Amino acid sequence: MDAIGTWFADHREILKPALAAYFMLAGMYGIRSLFTGAKKQYEEFAGQSTPFKVGVYFRETLFCVLDFTVGLLILFRVSWIKVLAIALLVASTPYSARGFAWGFSKGKPSWGLFLMSLAGFCAWNGFLVYVAYKVL
What we know:
The protein is mainly α and 136 residues long. The chain contains six helices and no strands.
């Protein structure tokens, strides 16, 4: 396991731009999805109140803007960006898993599908947290 950690440390100059590109692309894709309405075409969302919808749009926009901002700040080598990147990955995991499950099933997902998507996003974001911890 120590060899993996040293590999990440040895390849920081390659992995920092790759991590920045991931965050920036995730932010741009999320913003594009908000404008095309791809994330809000669920029956559950349509039946909710206006404050609920405003809150969901605010949360989604905040995560997208933070994703893009984290990517930019990684490129500018801001010293505290590791904390923001890890916090963002941890906070966005359940929402990303839920959105993936809804999109994959094209409607309300089963609990099994939701748990599988949650496990997948936990694994992926866990890997990204590890990379961010070792590289930033």
